[in-house]
Design brief:
Blueprint (H helix, E strand, L loop, with lengths): L12 H10 L2 H14 L7 E3 L6 E5 L3 E6 L4 H14 L10 E7 L2 E7 L4 E2 H4 L5 H19 L13 H18 L4 H4 L2 H7 L10 E3 L8 E6 L2 E7 L6 E3 L3 H12 L3 H11 L5 H13 L5 H5 L11 H8 L7
Organism: Duganella vulcania
Protein name: Phosphotransferase
Keywords: Transferase
C-alpha cells in the first residue's frame, strides 16, 4: 500500500459522498500523477467523470482510474476480481485490468476505457423497435454471465440462505431512511413471507446485479444502436438465483413496457406471470442498497399503488398477466 497523504481519512458516508462529488480535478492530481508514473500510463489530459458513487477519472481514450474509499472498499475488491474473470468471456467488451492496489487506504482500480457511448445517453431517444432489439441482446448477455465459470471458493460467492436472511433483516431500516410511505412499509414483511421462495436457489452463477443503461455501452451500426460493452462490477456476487439479475434491467430499461419485459425474458429464457411478478417485487424490496421509491418512479403509475400486489402488477406487466 502506498501512502502519499493526499486522500482524506475517516470520513463517514455522507462526507465521503460529498468529497467525491465536489472535490475538483486538481485535488485529485497528486494521486493520479503518482499512479500515472507508477504504472507507466500514457501521457494526456485527465478528466473527472461525474458518474457513480466512486471517484472516476479518464486519461484520454485509453484509461480509466477508479478510486474507492474505505467506506465501501468491497466494491473495489469486486472490480479487481471481476475484470480478469470476465475478460474475453462475453459478446460485449469489458474493462481490462491494468493495475490495482491501495493508496492512502483507498482502493484504486486502473482499467482500459471502453469504446462507444453510454446507453443511458441514447436510450430515451430510441424507438420501441430499437429498444426491443437491445432488450433481446441484454437477455443474451445475462445468459452469458450465467455461464461464466469460476473457482469453487471465489471470494464473491455468498451462502445463499444466509445472504437472503441478512437482506430481509436489514431492508426495513433502509426503507425507513428513504421515506417509504408508512402504509407500504407495514406491508413489506408480510409480503415477503407470502412470496415464499421468491429467490429460489439453483446452481451458483455469476450475477452482475446492476445491468442498466448507465453500465452498458452502445454503438451505432447501419443506423441502429446495439450493445457493445458492460462495466461496473462493484455489486457482483456469485449467487443462486437469476431474479436479482433480471430485476434491474426490467425496472430501468423496460420501465413498465410489456413488450420490452417479454423480449428480455424470452431472450434470457423463461415466461412471465403473476408468480414472477411477486418474486421480482420481493427481490426489489430486499436487494442490497435498493432505493425502492426511486425504482417505482421509473415506471409511470397506471393506477393505485397502495399494496405491493398493485405495485407488482404495474412494475412487471408481462403480457401473460394482462
Amino acid at each position: 500500500m502506498s501512502l502519499i497523504g493526499c486522500l482524506p481519512q475517516g470520513l463517514d458516508n455522507p462526507a465521503c459522498n460529498e468529497f467525491i462529488r465536489s472535490a475538483p480535478l486538481p485535488a485529485w492530481m497528486p494521486v493520479l500523477s503518482h499512479l500515472q508514473h507508477q504504472f507507466g500510463l500514457p501521457t494526456g489530459a485527465w478528466e473527472k467523470i461525474p458518474q457513480g458513487a466512486n471517484a472516476l477519472f479518464g486519461l484520454g481514450d485509453e484509461v480509466i482510474v477508479k478510486l474507492v474509499p474505505p467506506n465501501w472498499r468491497r466494491q473495489g475488491d469486486k472490480e479487481i476480481l471481476a475484470a480478469p474473470l470476465l475478460e474475453g468471456k462475453l459478446s460485449l467488451q469489458t474493462p481490462r485490468l491494468i493495475g490495482s492496489g491501495e493508496i492512502d487506504n483507498w482502493v484504486f482500480v486502473i482499467t482500459s476505457r471502453l469504446k462507444g457511448v453510454l446507453l443511458a445517453d441514447v436510450w430515451p431517444s430510441l424507438d420501441i423497435g430499437q429498444k426491443r432489439s437491445i432488450m433481446v441482446q441484454t437477455g443474451q448477455v445475462l445468459r452469458e454471465l450465467r455461464a461464466v465459470t469460476f473457482d469453487e471458493n471465489i471470494a464473491i460467492k455468498v451462502d445463499w440462505p444466509s445472504y437472503l436472511q441478512e437482506l430481509i433483516a436489514v431492508c426495513l431500516a433502509r426503507h425507513r431512511r428513504r421515506n417509504m410511505p408508512a402504509g407500504l412499509l407495514g406491508q413489506v414483511l408480510p409480503y415477503l413471507e407470502a412470496a415464499g421462495d421468491f429467490a429460489e436457489a439453483g446452481e451458483p452463477r455469476f450475477i452482475h446485479m446492476d445491468v442498466h443503461p448507465w453500465n452498458l455501452m452502445a454503438k451505432r451500426e447501419a443506423g441502429r444502436w446495439k450493445l457493445d460493452g458492460l462495466l461496473d462490477f462493484g455489486d457482483a456476487i456469485v449467487g443462486c438465483s437469476d431474479r436479482f439479475e433480471l430485476l434491474t434491467p426490467m425496472i430501468f430499461m423496460a420501465q413498465g413496457s410489456p413488450l420490452l419485459l417479454d423480449a428480455l425474458l424470452e431472450s434470457h429464457g423463461g415466461t412471465g406471470g403473476v408468480v414472477l411478478q411477486r418474486q421480482l417485487t420481493a427481490c426489489m424490496l430486499i436487494r442490497p442498497d435498493s432505493d425502492v421509491m426511486f425504482c417505482l418512479r421509473q415506471v409511470p403509475a397506471s393506477g393505485p399503488r397502495g399494496t405491493w400486489d398493485q405495485v407488482a402488477a404495474q412494475m412487471f406487466p408481462f403480457d401473460s398477466t394482462r
